[in-house]
Amino acid sequence: MPREITVALVQMAPALANPEENLRKMGEFIERIGSEQPTDLIVFPELSYTGTELGLRATDLAERIPGHATNYLAKRAADFNTHVVFGLVIKEKIESILYNGVVCLGPEGDVVASYRKVHLLGEERQVYRGGFRFINVDADWGRFGMLIGSDLVFPEAARSLTLEGAELVVLSANWETNRQEQWRAHIISRAVENAIFVAAANRVGEEPTMQFGGDSTMVGPMGELYTLL
Amino acid sequence: MPREITVALVQMAPALANPEENLRKMGEFIERIGSEQPTDLIVFPELSYTGTELGLRATDLAERIPGHATNYLAKRAADFNTHVVFGLVIKEKIESILYNGVVCLGPEGDVVASYRKVHLLGEERQVYRGGFRFINVDADWGRFGMLIGSDLVFPEAARSLTLEGAELVVLSANWETNRQEQWRAHIISRAVENAIFVAAANRVGEEPTMQFGGDSTMVGPMGELYTLL
Asked: Does a structural domain hold residue A18?
């Protein structure tokens, strides 16, 4: 069944440890994108709600799902009838256990799914616990999976989502500039090896020790480039 | 243990269905490379002994292992104390069953291993049977695996070799020009996702319906480019 969908990638620079500012910005992006044209899916970068180098602040900035951030953005998603994927620090009942996660909000203003990053990078392991499940979302227009940052380096992640029926994988990333050639290579390879679409939103800007490379991109199942920001 | 090895990639245009000509050329390449400097491993492209678009001629050009081609080149490998990987059509006892294969010859002039391509491309299936095992070779200087052409598109292939201890994967390919961006992406991705070296020899030249893209390359475990022909 041929279908056409509209996906928006938001290449933003979240303010470090300033969630209210980031929430406002994300809300404005959703409004601006949704006002320009009907959009099926809007993808924000990894940890777009908090920024990256949080250190001990991660505990204070972590939120439950549903919670403040999901409530705020779910309303915007419903206003513009779109799915929204954004990044945040997730906590559960035990407040000291944190995850680097993304949430998918639905066009009905509901929390559709959340995913906890499986492949944590070295230093992240001091802060976050690794997830253990890959999550697909069923939209009206098809099934898509969610990955975060360094999940991209492990082909098993996108493969698992594809084997469970994903036709599109969205990636929310905080990818650093010094590995930018690998970024492009992995995205093309994941798309082609699974014959799927990959929509990858990477942040820009700087933090105390990190520089982020942008190059958010959408690639098709034959490696064809739809956009490169 | 830090080690330094010398790998040569031969980016040649095999003559179609002219194995004697190709054997002579390969012998000359080994001699020229080995005379210039001590070399640990020389990698030839896929089907370097026969060319690619063989059709029904594949049956006549297929060889057993050991056989004429391996005997000839094994002597050259021994002369220059190097491993040699080259491509040919392999047959076994039942003459009608053919494989798209590579053979690894050792510095002692022995046949060290052979590998039969697992991931055949669409049309190849009319001629070749698929292999079912990934093969690593133990050299004095380390363990390396062998892959062929479209095996590169399936991350499980290089992953399997890595999980069995490969530090280097050599790829013999007949990769077409119209998928050249994917070629580079897959090679970088395989190297980085497995933290291994990848040494890929692709042929050049044309055949009745195919054009080959060269770009033979060696990439390291951080995606670093050692050479691109």
From this structure: yes
